[in-house]
Design brief:
Elements (H helix, E strand, L loop, with lengths): L12 H11 L5 E2 L2 E2 H7 L2 H8 L6 E9 L4 E8 L10 E7 L4 E7 L7 H11 L4 E5 L1
Antiparallel strand pairs: 1-2, 3-4, 3-7, 4-5, 5-6
C-alpha cells in the first residue's frame, strides 16, 4: 500500500484505513520505503519530537498521513506532571530517500491524551489517514 497513491479528493477514509491496517507494518510504503522503518525503527521521529518539547512521560499512540499536505502526524499520550499543557502531536515531513524526518511542528489545542482529541482531529483534517492507531 503506497501512501503517496492516496488522493485527498473523494477519499473514503474507512476503506483506506482498512487497506492500510491489512498491509501494516511491512506493506505500508512511502515513496517505496517502509513507513514503519522510516518512522519507528530508527527512533528519529520520536527523538525529534522530544527535542521540540515532548516530555519523557509519554507513549506514542498514533501515526497518520495527510495526502493533501504530504505530511505525517505522530500523536502521543502525555502525562505532563506539574506542567499544565504540553503538545501531544507533531506534524512532520519525511524524506524517503534519506530516511530523515524534518519540519517538525507541534499541533496545538489537543488534549494531553491523544485519543480524546482524535475524533475532533478527524473532523478538522478529513483526509488524515490513520496509519497506526494504538
Amino acid at each position: 500500500m503506497e501512501l503517496t497513491d492516496i488522493k485527498a479528493d473523494n477519499l473514503d477514509r474507512q476503506v483506506v484505513e482498512q487497506q492500510v491496517s491489512q498491509a501494516w507494518p511491512d506493506g505500508v510504503l512511502y515513496h517505496g520505503a517502509s513507513i514503519f522503518g522510516l518512522a519507528y525503527v530508527s527512533g528519529e521521529v520520536e527523538n525529534a519530537c522530544r527535542e521540540k518539547g515532548l516530555p519523557d512521560e509519554c507513549q506514542e499512540c498514533f501515526l497518520g498521513y495527510q495526502p493533501s499536505t504530504d505530511r505525517f502526524l505522530m500523536g502521543f499520550d502525555v502525562w505532563p506532571g506539574e506542567e499544565e499543557y504540553l503538545p501531544s502531536a507533531y506534524w512532520f515531513s519525511m524524506d524517503a530517500d534519506t530516511g530523515k524526518a524534518s519540519n517538525f511542528e507541534p499541533l496545538r489545542g489537543l488534549d494531553n491524551l491523544f485519543y480524546k482529541s482524535y475524533p475532533e482531529l478527524q473532523q478538522k483534517h478529513p483526509d488524515l489517514i490513520g496509519v497506526r492507531l494504538d
